[in-house]
Amino acid sequence: MPIWTALMGWKGYAAVALAGGLILGGAAWTAQGWRWDAKLARAETAWAQEHEAQAQAAMTAIEAARDEGRRRTAAMEKARDDAQNQAAAAAADAAGLRAEHDRLRARVNALAHAAAARDPGAAEGSPAGTDAVDLLAYMLGRVSRRAEELAGIADRARIAGLTCERAYEVLRAR
Questions:
Q1: What is the pLDDT of residues 59-86, one digit of tens each?
Q2: Is the pTM of this model over 0.85?
Q3: Residues 6+ apart with CB under 8 A from 101
Q4: Counting Cβ atoms within 10 Å, is residue 133 exposed (0-12), middle (13-18) or buried (19+)?
Q5: For 86-113, b where at least 16 C-beta lie within 10 A, e where not — what string?
Q6: Taking phi first (over 0 means left), then psi (-120 to 50 degrees means alpha), and beta for anything else, what does residue 22 get?
């Protein structure tokens, strides 16, 4: 019996339908695979683009943080240099004031000795006259030295406060 006779009738139709179904099913499976591959490729491309965008954003953020750190460091260095310049200026002023203090002290001593020489009671060697002038010169010297110390403390505190304020403003500003 030839194969053609066996495919006649309902068995033939069933075999043809089965073969057609298998061919259509295979074609649908292949088409579905192509669609899945395309969808997967689009998802991978989108993921790669998103990953690249995130990496670029991270690099931008890192560079911005580095720039901010450099700006803050430069500003802190400038504040420190300004404070050192102010301290040097204050030290120079203090040295000038010490020289002025020494001149005034010498002048007070000269005036005290001149007053003692002019005073008839002091000229005769009266201890009261010379003691008062010496006490005045001594007290003036102590007051002057203490004023110099307080001025130095005030200068250092002012410079430190201004430097701290500048540093705070630098760190606070963005």
A1: 999 999 999 999 889 988 988 898 899 8
A2: no
A3: 144, 145, 148
A4: buried
A5: beeebeeebeeeeeebeeeeeebeeebe
A6: alpha
